[in-house]
Write a structure and sequence with these properties.
This protein has 241 residues and is α+β, with helices and mostly antiparallel strands. It has helices spanning 95-118, 147-163, 175-180; strands at residues 4-5, 15-26, 29-34, 36-37, 51-55, 58-62, 64-68, 71-75, 88-93, 123-128, 135-139, 168-172, 196-200, 206-207, 223-230, 233-239. The radius of gyration is 19 Å and the shape is elongated. The structure holds zinc ion.
């Protein structure tokens, strides 16, 4: 059974009605599966959404959401006893943390796009869009003496992108079109997730299943805290508003 991933369609939808289709217990604990969900399951360098599922008269805080075999498992303290498939549920994701995760993720793509433009030999290979520890990693080299100017150029490019209020669009795509566009899929893609590309206006499209803000204007206050180069790998640490 598969879960319809509503967060792919609208970052700014925070509440929805759905139905329970299954429940169970795995090594992480008890979980609920719904026919559709707003909860982003942790993966792709982005943390899970938090929030609450109201079902059978109880409010269950969602402790974690994970993607397993095409379904999102919403981990809760306990599944209500006698819960039947088809039981209606109300889903609420925490708006503040959803939007912060979206800003962090979009900022990561913006940093990747900006630096790949500034440093044509660099290639963004990893993103980690977690609060307090966000970074993007590149394959490439950067001599010590070029570090300060690279950082200054990046900060300038980011400030320009924020001031220009660039639109951020995402759309579902199939593997064939992706190949036609010459876009390589990242490794370790979870099986069964729809393919999607995210495009920041003026930057090349990138495959991404995360949540994104609609406009770079929301990234006012984005700061690059560190640029570290070691053995062919450059890590750019940042903080998003
Ligand atoms: Zn992404």
């Amino acid at each position: 059974m598969k879960t319809k991933l509503l967060y792919l369609e609208d970052t700014y939808c925070f509440a929805v009605h759905a139905h329970c289709v299954d429940s169970g217990v795995d090594e992480r604990g008890p979980y609920l599966i719904l026919d559709e969900t707003l909860f982003y399951p942790q993966g792709g360098g982005q943390p899970a959404d938090s929030g609450v599922i109201s079902i059978s008269g109880v409010e269950l805080p969602v402790q974690f959401a994970g993607f397993v075999e095409g379904a999102v498992r919403h981990y809760v303290e306990a599944v209500p006893s006698g819960l039947a498939a088809g039981t209606p549920a109300e889903l609420h994701v925490d708006e503040a943390s959803r939007l912060h995760h979206a800003r962090l993720h979009t900022a990561g793509h913006l940093i990747a796009g900006a630096l790949e433009g500034l440093m044509p030999s660099w290639k963004a290979v990893k993103g980690h869009h977690f609060t307090d520890s966000a970074y993007v990693e590149f394959e490439g080299t950067l001599p010590e003496e070029a570090r300060a100017s690279a950082l200054a150029s990046l900060e300038e490019a980011l400030a320009k992108a924020v001031a220009a209020a660039l639109s951020v669009d995402s759309r579902l795509i199939d593997a064939e079109e992706l190949a036609q566009l010459g876009i390589a899929l990242p490794p370790h893609l979870p099986e069964g997730k729809p393919l999607r590309v995210v495009t920041i206006e003026g930057y090349p499209p990138v495959p991404c299943g995360g949540t994104h803000i609609a406009n770079t204007q929301a990234l006012s206050g984005l700061t690059v805290s560190k640029l570290k180069a070691k053995r062919g790998c450059i890590r750019v640490s940042y903080a998003a508003p």
